[in-house]
Specification:
This protein has one domain. Helices cover about 85% and strands about 0% of the residues. It has 5 helices and no strands. The model has no long low-confidence stretch (mean pLDDT about 95).
Length: about 120
Amino acid sequence: MKYLQIFFVALVAFEHIYFMILEMFYWDKPKGLKAFGMKLEEAKISKTLAKNQGLYNGFLAAGLIWALINKNNFEELSLFFLICVTIAGIYGSYTTKNIKLFYVQGIPAILGIITLIL
């Protein structure tokens, strides 16, 4: 079970590193425009907000990586940051009316939570 826990925590961490890179560096580039379904004009207007959002995703990834390297508090730290990710996925999906966001961000975090609780 421990390997499954580590797998989900690492998966969610890597997802959030990817989100951070997309939002901070590729928001107004073809890769970012395609990933977020935006037009260049929209992306240019919201670029500063996207960088801020990317930074927060980086903090979530950092917290999950911290959990992975902290053997004494792995479960507690992982649970806290996975709950944060789940809430972000629910809120982001609700406010953007994009259920795909919940599936990509929320479901892996929820699966990680389940593995930690069992």
